[in-house]
Amino acid sequence: VKVQDGCNNRCTYCIVWKARGAGVSTSPEEVVRRVREAVSQGAHEVVLTGINLGRYSCEGEDGKSVDLAGLLQSILAKTDVERIRLSSIEPPDVTPRLVSAMRAGGVRVAPFLHVCLQSGCDRTLSRMGRVYGTAAYARAIEVAREGIPDLALGTDLIVGFPGETDADFEESLAFCRRMAFAKMHVFRYSRRPGTPAATYPDQVPPQVMAERGRRMRDAAREMRLDAARSLVGTVQSAIVQYPGRAVTGGLFEALVDRSLPLDSMVRVRVESVDAQGRLVGSPA
């Protein structure tokens, strides 16, 4: 369910703010209506999406302003949806208020946050025009993990941004390992005409970007395995999407009994993890 569009940020590699315009949000009443409609059609999980989701802000029918935490609370109170998941948000939007709303939702809120990073190097973040540094990012994640102990953390990461040196990359890699991501989307920098970064000097050669991407993806796989193994012995809620395969609230694939009905919410006791990082479990 898309609840927000547009972006007011001005990242130097991004053309979205020109293509989509300024940020706008859908009324909370309309969002509740759409969630109810999805549930009536059999949806067990609804994902709230937006170009800059964390900037959601809209006046409700009562004249009061509603932020993302308030929207989440309204959906939980006014619908029967079994699970709500938030899509990608920015580090400044991981606030104690949002974390508290997620925690209060219990099993009805997926214990997952995809918090965009883009680089673990402050020099690169500054050149990207990002609105935070690594220290602020780490503080945001600390707040999230303190409030949601079983949180699975995802992120986006760009390698080979113009001017990124070997030392910058190593700094970024080390920071990512420190954050212990459960899921990473790793991209090689791609020039976008009309963006400031497209004209920056010191464009990184493709072969260097490829090698950095390989190393970052290797680290991502290691971290995902570690995160999956930490779940052994726990009970996870999962939605059966294919015969014998379900997806947990933390976005881990779980191998389950093939007799379980498709599109059903089940409780899985995690017994082991296979080489691909998939959870192997039994009914709980």
**Count of strand segments:** 14
Note poorly predicted spans.
none
Provide the structure class. Answer: alpha/beta
- Percent range of helical residues: 25-40%
From the N-terminal CA to the C-terminal CA, the straight-line distance is 30 Å
Spatially, the strands of the biggest sheet line up as 10-11-12-14-13
Question: What is the multimeric organization of the chains shown?
Answer: single chain
**How do the SSEs run, as a string of H and E?**
EHEHEEEHEHEHHEHEHEEEEE
Q: Please summarize the sheet with the most strands.
A: 5 strands, mixed, barrel
Approximate strand percentage: 15-25%
* Overall average residue pLDDT: 96
**Global morphology:** globular
Number of helices: 8
Radius of gyration using CA atoms only: 20 Å
Describe this structure in words.
The chain is globular and about 55 Å long. With 284 residues, the chain is of the alpha/beta class. Strand 4 and strand 5 form a beta hairpin. 34% of the residues lie in helices and 24% in strands. The chain has helices at residues 16-20, 28-40, 68-78, 96-104, 122-128, 134-147, 166-179, 206-229, and strands at 2-5, 24-25, 45-50, 57-59, 65-67, 83-86, 112-114, 152-159, 183-188, 235-242, 245-248, 253-255, 265-273, 279-283. The mean pLDDT is 96. The chain contains eight helices and 14 strands.
